[in-house]
Design goal:
The complex is a heterodimer of chains A (356) and B (236). Helices cover 71% and strands 3% of the residues of chain A. Chain A has 356 residues and is mostly helical. Chain B has one domain: Rossmann fold, CATH 3.40.50.300. In chain B, strand 1 and strand 2 form a beta hairpin. Classes of the chains: A mainly alpha (356), B alpha/beta (236).
Chain lengths: 356, 236
């Protein structure tokens, strides 16, 4: 069929190729996850959790302009909800991830109603304050199964959850969660909502004037971020077992490094945060291991990467992925951008691909 | 019944009153110009109609329906589109993505991506370009095209000529007949009096938040307009 009208094209040859490569990578990680090397499985879980957190933080900050430094609230809520379901109600620990994520989502409703009254920097700080308040409230709950500030451990009797089995299952869940989270972000941004979210970020009044319900869209995105952030927290502790409010609600563990990953990888892109998270994690894994050529402590790694993020934010705002895209304009894994194909070209394409 | 009816409306910015008992009516298919000096209340009037600034007292109705309780996005869905002062384009999106945001409410009608690009040929060849890289005139064309994507019944044009070269303004105004042909009603706010009067069937002049003069442009004398615009006595 020869179409004379212009139409909007999304996928490019490069995106199909890179998409295929990404699928292969996931398949390879799935094979590793089902192996019996606990240290590899730990790495998969940690990396995937960071990918989820970075994708969600980017969805908020990079696409809706909601810069939150209180996302650790949802990590902590997801984690403690897991503890309550698994320890308190004797549910299967893997199954408990699901209600834990839903609890994080439900908790996000009042948090959003409160925090959305604030704008910009005030919202950022407000979210931090809310996260701290939740942490302190959890610490006050001294009874079972939370056990206050001294913390507790997820109940994983070896008879029910053999260690090898638990590491395998957790790695697979983490991998699946990362794939779903990134896919949700990509699909969301491809949708009508995604385009309007970017419009809101660019010019809120302009978007509102075109009929975009800014509040509702932000609220919706905030809920999605809470759901996946909560799930990520729960998955992390399936592996780590030991839960304390100060670590589960830690801004230094769950938000500060995430910001660094997103900024270095490329804020406002789907691919950037994934690459930022993977790179940040793998480099840290290398430089903090005792037998590496360049060696420094966790703290120094945070300081160095924080400095890099600062420089990127000042001089290369689109980050690593943005810089790559500047050099190779057609580069994209997730075809969320819309390109207009003018008349004739469509006809040729239609015939080539036989999809008329 | 007029398509848009503004009846004795007051509007405020904080404590500052910008509109006083203002009334005007726009019939379907008309092009109505609102002229006036800086601070006369023109943009406030546009914002009150679009729902960005609340109208206090009085009543604004669109197609017979009271707009009072309707929020901005409801009014856009009703078919009121504002081309805002300052254009407010989305710099990180391409030209065509900007246009697609305009179609957010999904109102059916003659305006599609293809039709808008045909009407503004200069946007056609820039379609895949980042909107941040457009000139002022191109951005203004984009802002108008984007509002048209909503297939509005009433298009509010706020200071289209602001900061643009005369030839660019001429081109933009040359696109208005094509818009009217589709049955779209126009309300044009403009400081450029000649431009506005040429494009309009009816003109209103605002002075300090009140209507100081109204009528068919052909029937308004230059001295009368000058007096209504500046608030001076008509000198013979």
């Amino acid at each position: 069929m020869i179409r004379t009208q212009n139409h909007v094209q999304r996928a490019t040859g490069t995106s199909k190729l890179l998409g295929g490569l990404a699928a292969l990578l996931v398949a390879w990680l799935a094979v590793l996850a089902t192996g019996d090397v606990a240290s590899t499985q730990t790495k998969i879980v940690e990396m995937c959790v960071f990918v989820v957190l970075a994708s969600m933080w980017n969805l908020l900050a990079g696409y809706t302009g909601l810069v939150s430094i209180g996302q650790q609230a949802f990590v902590g809520i997801g984690t403690y909800a897991l503890v309550v379901f698994a320890n308190g109600y004797d549910q299967d620990i893997y199954f408990s991830v699901l209600p834990a994520a839903l609890i994080a989502l439900v908790a996000a409703v009042p948090i959003a109603l409160l925090a959305f009254r604030l704008r910009g920097g005030y919202f950022a700080i407000g979210m931090w304050v809310i996260a701290e308040v939740v942490r302190l409230l959890v610490k006050q709950y001294k009874a079972d199964p939370i056990k206050g500030g001294s913390g507790t451990s997820l109940n994983v009797p070896v008879s029910l959850y053999p260690k090898v089995d638990r590491f395998q299952t957790t790695a697979l869940i983490a991998l699946a969660l990362a794939v779903v989270a990134v896919s949700v972000v990509a699909l969301l941004l491809r949708s009508r909502v995604g385009l309007s979210l970017q419009a809101v970020r660019d010019n809120e009044a302009g978007a509102a004037g075109l009929g975009v319900n800014v509040y509702r869209e932000r609220f919706f995105v905030f809920m999605i971020a809470a759901l996946f952030t909560g799930a990520a927290g729960a998955v992390w502790y399936l592996l780590k077992i030991r839960v304390q409010p100060d670590t589960a609600f830690s801004v230094g563990d769950w938000t500060a490094p995430i910001v660094v990953m997103v900024v270095i990888g490329g804020i406002g892109t789907v691919e950037g945060p994934v690459i930022g998270a993977v790179l940040w994690y793998l480099v840290r894994d290398y430089v903090t291991s005792s037998d590496s050529v360049i060696h420094f402590s966790d703290e120094w790694y945070l300081i160095y990467t924080g400095l890099i993020a600062l420089i990127v934010a000042l001089y290369a705002q689109r980050g690593l992925w943005g810089a790559l895209q500047d050099r190779f304009p057609r580069l994209q894994v997730f075809p969320i951008q819309r390109r207009l194909v003018v008349g004739d070209e469509v006809a040729v394409r239609g015939e080539d691909e036989g999809n008329g | 019944m007029a398509l848009l009816d503004v009846e004795v409306v007051d509007a405020f910015y904080g404590d500052f009153q910008a509109l006083f008992q203002l009334s005007l009516a726009v019939d379907e298919g008309q092009a109505v110009a609102v002229i006036g000096a800086n601070g006369a209340g023109k943009s406030t009037l546009m914002k009150a109609i679009a729902g960005i600034v609340p109208a206090r007292g009085g009543r604004i109705s669109f197609d017979g329906i009271d707009l009072g309780p309707r929020s901005v996005h409801h009014r856009v869905a009703d078919g009121i589109s504002l081309v805002p002062e300052g254009r407010r384009i989305f710099p990180s999106l391409t030209v065509e993505e900007n246009l697609l945001v305009g179609a957010y409410r999904g109102r059916p009608g003659p305006w599609t991506l293809t039709k808008v690009l045909e009407t503004f040929p200069l946007l056609q060849r820039l379609a895949t370009r980042s909107a941040a890289r457009l000139s002022g005139g191109e951005q203004q064309a984009l802002a108008i095209g984007r509002a048209l994507m909503n297939n509005p019944r009433l298009l509010l044009l706020d200071e289209v000529s602001l900061g643009l070269a005369p030839t660019v303004v001429k081109d933009l105004y040359a696109s208005l007949p094509a818009i009217r042909e589709q049955g779209t009603t126009l309300l044009i706010v403009e400081q450029d009096v000649t431009r506005a009067l040429t494009a309009a069937d009816i003109a209103y002049c605002l002075l300090e938040g009140r209507v100081s003069l109204s009528g068919r442009p052909a029937e308004l004398s230059r001295p009368a307009i000058a007096a209504a615009y500046f608030g001076t006595e008509v000198s013979q």
